[in-house]
Every structure is written in structure tokens, then in C-alpha cells.
User: Fold Gfo/Idh/MocA family oxidoreductase from Larkinella rosea.
Amino acid sequence: MTNNGTKPSLNRRQFLSIAGTSAAALSVSSRFAFAGNRSADRKVRIGIIGGRFGLGFYFHEHPNCIVEAVSDLRPERRDALMKTYKCTKSYESLEKLLQDPKIEAVFLATPAPDHANHVLASLKAGKHVLCAVPAALNLEDCAKLRDAVKKSGLTYMMAETSAFMQTTLSVRKMYKAGEFGKLFSAAAEYNHPGLEVLYFEDKKPTWRHGLPPMLYPTHCTSFLISVTGERLTSVSGVGWGDDSPVLKGNPYKNPFWNETAFFQTNKNTPFRVEVNWRGALRNVERGEWRGEKMSFFMPQSEPGESTIVRSEAKEGLDHGGFQVAKNVVETYKQPMWWETDLMPAPLRHNSGHGGSHTFITHEFIDAIVNNRQPLVNIHEALAYTAPGIVAHQSALKDGEYLKIPSFD
Assistant:
């Protein structure tokens, strides 16, 4: 519902204004072009790989999509995928699925260390690719992905949820409308305490064992980049660890449970990011955008209500009884954008990670159908991913100030 109690409604032209203005993306398309001129009879045949995270999307509900086949190394997960997506065809591996000539696109919901190689193999097989986050775990693979996507001419998209959360859609619209004035700082945090329960399965280490927090940065970096189109250009990173035996022997040689990064953007905006795996924390993915005219603060926990502060100063008293000019603070009533015609009718329902999953599903399929770039194309994906890689390098060097390469 909107602030006046009515359901939000936007046509395509109006919603295009929600997007920010990334120079890289604007060179090839309008950003975030939901509700495009969809061809009613165009069907994208997709293969879904990964029977855990891959279960949480709705490709079988999209009117321009057919789930042709699914794949997972484990038979019970293949069965779960077939049941969820009402699909009768499965493959024991990605390699076998990629040989299916009927499959035009793939969704790679596979472990993070496999993302780069899986994307490269899928592009080589001639498939459009939607991949879970992050795009890669090192800068070398970032470069390989950029070059491979460019050479292939195929659609690549990263499934970053924070860029499609209902709150982020609203903030992007506010920013485009100039409501913030000039942003003077931003912050984001992703807290997932207790993550070590996923480090081992059947007493064997999983890919998550010791994963450096800043190698999983996109739930935070996207809060700023997807709104303003800025690029993170330099960073000083700091890590915290406690010499826990749980971290011993991890394949990343990572000593940190938690990492904090202090970024600067190409617009000289300071941006603080925290990714925390352990501590007295509430699970949350949240952002803060602070401007001269308005600031926006997502809730400290989920579910919760966001807060807007406006610089419409009114006279008041501070805690010491002195007369001061006070800003206006208000609660923001979040519209549920998934209820609107931004989504095809079958996808107008709530979904995971702040309502983002149906938006990701639609953005990928619609980009293929309308032959356009998706919001989180390869340049955006690497702009979300690479800064975390460099931030972790900085943390290992006691906070050394490092430059972040551009992959635009």
C-alpha cells in the first residue's frame, strides 16, 4: 500500500524512472525496463541447476518461460526441482544438461566457487545465463567473465536479491526523482550469525567453510550501486577473527569471521559495508542512504519499517534543553511493487529476500524476450563483486588502502 492507503500503480514509462543511471548499462539499454513489450508467444526454455537455492524461484509461472529440465548432483534434489517446477526431465550434471539443444537459458544456483567456471561453460554451450551471487571469487575470473560475455553476445545476469527488494525499488525511484538531493554517505550491512552450521555436512567441509565475508559482498554493495550507478573505486578493509578452531584449515586461508570495508566511489561518496558471520547480531540485509534533503534507513531487523528523515527543520529542544533546528522523522509505508503490473499476473505474489525472487525471474526472462540488457548485467555484477575481493585483500594487509579495478 502507498502512504495514502491505495495500491501502487505504474506504467512502463513511469517505472523506467525508478532506475538509476549507470554509464556502463546506459550504453546498451534502458535500465530495469520491467513490463516491456513482451511477445505473448515467445517461450524461453530454461534449465535450472542447483536443488537448494534454485527451488525458490518461479520460472514455471512466467508466461514466457518453460522449465525444460533441471539438474543436481544429488538425486533427491533433482526430484525436488522436478516437483517444484513441474518438470519431467532431469540431468545428473550441468555438463549433460548443457548438451540439451532445447535449452536456451540456464539458472545456475550452484556453489559460489563454481560460478565462474559454470558460467563460462554455459556461455560456451550457447546458453543465456542467470547466476547466483557472487559472480566470481577472484579478479582474474572477473576479467574472464567480462570477456566471455562480450564475445558470446548472450544475456548474462546475476541474481542479486538486494537490487530487487521492494525497499530498493522505492529508494531507486526516490533517488531518480531527486528526493535525496546530493548523497553525502551510504552504508550497508549483511549479518548472518551462526553461518558456521553450514560449514560442514556429514562431517565433511562444504564450500562455505571459512568463506571470507567480503567475498560475498553483493547483498551490500548493490544497495548503493543499483540505486545511483556509482562505482566503488578504492577501499580500506578490516577483519575480525578470534583464532577459532572452526576456521582452521579452510580452503580460503581466511582468518576472519567478520569484515568491514570503507569504500570511496567515483563520485567521492563514502560507503561503509559490513558482512558479519558471527556475533550478537540480528539477521538482516539493509542499507542506508544519507542525503542533503532526505535520508532513508532500512529497518534494523526483518520484518520492520523503514525510516525517512527530511531536512525540513523545525524549532525544538535537544536533550540538554537547548533550542535547535530539528529534522522531520517519519515512518515509510512500503509499497508492495509485486502487486502491480510490473509483474506478469501469475508472478504477482510475495517471494524470497524482500519480494525479490519474482522480480529476478521476470527481469531475466523479459531481457531475453525483448533482447535487452538486464539490470544486473555483467558490468553491474562485477561492480558489485570485485570491490569485496579487493576489500578482503586489504583486510589481509591490515587495512592497506587499495584501488579497485573497473570492469566496465
Summary: Residues 1-33 have pLDDT under 50 and may be disordered. The radius of gyration is 21 Å. The chain has ten helices and 17 strands. The domain at 44-158 is CATH 3.40.50.720 (Rossmann fold).
